[in-house]
Every structure is written in structure tokens, then in C-alpha cells.
User: Fold this.
Amino acid sequence: MRVVFIGLLGLLHCFSIVRAQDIHVNGQVRGQDEMPLAYVNIGIELQNIGTVSQPDGRFELSIPDEYRTDSLLFSVIGYHPRKVAIQSLLGGNPNIILSPRSYEMEHINVKAKRAKTKKIGRKRKGLLKIVMYMEDDNLGSEFGRFFESDKEHSKLENLSFYIHHNPFDSIKFRVNVYEEENGEPSKNILRENIFVTYGEESGWVNVDVSKYEIYPKGNFFVSMEWIEDKNHPEDRKLFFASRLIGAKDTWSRKVSQGTWKRSNSADMVMNATISY
Assistant:
């Protein structure tokens, strides 16, 4: 009887170890036309567990077993978001189908006069550095800042930020522009993806966004989302320029669908040109 009891304890112990391990899900995201969807944000909302799909739409994600009964949110600009139960993704390589969405064009009154332009935000690169540390399991991490604007109606024309050190041969960002709600980033107001590829060691990165018809209402938030890199150096740290003043304006989140966190130490050097 003692032998049986010890054996049972051993089995229970092994079972607890297995249950404590991460579960792994993988699959491919496609549109209704069966075409793969690249750089789809995938994650458990507000739990800092997420990733983005690869250029061919495929994705892999390790999830702590405690979230087995939760759902993954799939979202990307131009398509309706979709929640999928994690249980349904286990034991296979499923296709996740997203349906396209249309956007209502907002009516903008255009006055018959030459538009004025204004540059807001941080214009000098500064000497400090903010590190953005990249691992394969946190694609979709974002770094950005708020812009205070006293213009109820304006158009976003250009964005600039400074990279102090880039160890990658090539790195790809997605630009996101969010509304402000209760002092935090809220709804993404873009209607199409804006991608930026950077391959220099350091310097200013200028992004002309004038063709995207972006019209913030008052204050807005801009982030750079890390979605792809071409090589895997041992030191995977990307350094943005920053300053000490105004740290309350800089926010980040670790992964897709994760929680936003405000910086308490430094302010990201980024500026925006608006017309009005």
C-alpha cells in the first residue's frame, strides 16, 4: 500500500509540473480572400502576453497555463477585431479569418486660405537614452509620447524621432496614432498601416505621413511599434533619444494588446508637424 501511495504522489507531482508549464499556440491569420495578413496584433488583453503575425500571417505564442481558458484578441487596421478561445487553438495549426471593415470618412471643413504649420514635441535629440529591449516573444512592443495641441482640427503632416543606437541590420516599425482618454492612449485613429524601415546605426528618423489624412482632435499620442527585425544580434537593445523633462508624456507597452505604462524617468525625443 505504501508503494502505491508513493507512486500516486509521484504521478500527482508530475501532473502538477506539466500543468505549470506554458502552453504553445500557433496558426495563420488570413483575410476572407484567404490571403495571409501580416503584422496582426495578437494577445490576451491587458495581460502583457502577445505577439504579431509574421509577413506570411503565421504566428506562435507561449502562454502560461493559467490563461488556458482565456481568449486571444486578433486585431489589425482595416479589419474587424476577433476574439478566439485559446482552447480552440490547441492541438492544431488553425487559420484565423478576419473580415474587412470600412471606415466612415469624417467631414472636414476646408477653408480657402493657406494652411499654417506648427512643430510640437521635443525638437532636440538630448543626451539621455531610453532602451527598448527586444525579444522574439514581445513583438508588438510600443514606445511613444503624447502631443499637446490646442487645435480642435488639425492634420498630421510629419513625425520625427531620434535613435541613439540600433544594433540591427534592419528594423521595421509600425506608426500608431491614438486618441487621448483619461490621460492614456485610447483608440487608434489610423485607417491604414504606416510602416517605417530603418537600417542606420543612429540618427533622426523622419516619417512623412501627409498622404494618410490623419486628423487628430486636440491632444494625441504617437507610438513606434516594433514588428520585425532582420538579424538577431546578441545585444538586442534599441536606444531612443530622451530628455529628463516631461517624463509624464512618454508611455510604453511590452507586447501587443498589453497594458500601457507611463515613464517615470525620461521623455522620448519625438516631434510632430501639424497643419491647421
Residues 117-275 form a domain with the Jelly Rolls fold (CATH 2.60.120). Residues 2-20 form the longest helix (19 residues). The radius of gyration is 22 Å.
